[in-house]
Protein 1
Amino acid sequence: MSTATKIEWTANSFNPWWGCSRVSPGCRFCYADRDAQRYGQKVWRRHGPRRMLSEANWARPLKWNRDAARARTPVRVFCASMADVFEDHPSVAEPRQRLWDLIEATPWLRWQLLTKRPENVPRMVPWGDSWPSWVWLGVSAENQRWAGARIPLLLNIPAAVRFVSAEPLLGPVDLGGYLRRTGSPGGGLHWLIAGGESGPKARPCDLAWLRSITAQCQDTGIPVFVKQLGSVLGRQLGAGPKGGDITAWPADLRIREFPRTSEEAPA
């Protein structure tokens, strides 16, 4: 809802609305639900309401785009940290169309769309096989089951950058043939975000899981961004309440890379 964000792999966070519903184990201790309830918003119910945000909020990406164009430097924007753009909920159909119009009007922004519902993407976006080059699409893959369910669907979508967020990482994940996959538009995956779960009920993340998934990407030249180790490892290693103090991490996990296209100016 504001320009401020503590998410290290983006610069700004834009929320067109608040609210979603849980669909897999990664959702169990959802930080967004927790944050919304602090404001008295009960918007994490399958058939419940969604909170629509102000016109001032919708104007922010236009300003970010103007500023980025003036500086000739693209800016990453995560959309949406408090929702899933591809949730099939009746109250968000109209604002979702408005979001596509906003995205098309802001080519200096690198729109990072992350979903747990890739099966809905083809029928909800207006771009068919010609996605704007400044739109990235990612799926959450908290364990092997959901990696296998979501990543193949992602690879059928011709986004300029296709990424996986293995956060919270709840088990080992073998990315197998997803990294350099032939026959998919644009090849395989282009970026990995990985991290452990944080919060008062955080489930443990094993260093071996993080080492395995990051090594798989490094061995194939895929950029990796390790966001945090999670609360359990954070306590064990003295890396802070979220495991985010990178100076306390094992040296081999201090990896924070971005796709090469992230700094390219619009064509």
Protein 2
Amino acid sequence: MFYPNFENDFVLLTPKDMLTRDEAWINKDDLYHDFEIVCEAVPNEQLRAQINNYFMKVLPEEASLRQKRRAMVRTIRKYPQLIDAYIRFKEKRGGQAIRKSSRKVKLSEQMYLENFGELAELLHKSSGFYGVGGATYKEA
């Protein structure tokens, strides 16, 4: 069996798409951001009207962002169908998730391959970093 190694030491291989940190495509902040669009995406007209009426009832006049979020949470708890509508809304836009993820993977790849390579070269040329041992407990 082959184990990746470099200079007689094991190397951990990580798929490049795991090197990005990203929020899940379906997430709470996007639900809040797209709340009005999601409400409009509810297919049942009567239910959509009930949701809008309830939201307007629990939303204070001149509401702060915090109060608006609280009203959204109350509305979602009362009408969990909004979560289904939100998931459908996001699934229809799955291509956007793929494009967004691909861009982040390319940026990460550039950062890891180019920038870290340059950092290693700089450390090698301008410091004794690579001359320091590290094979024993005392050296570490």
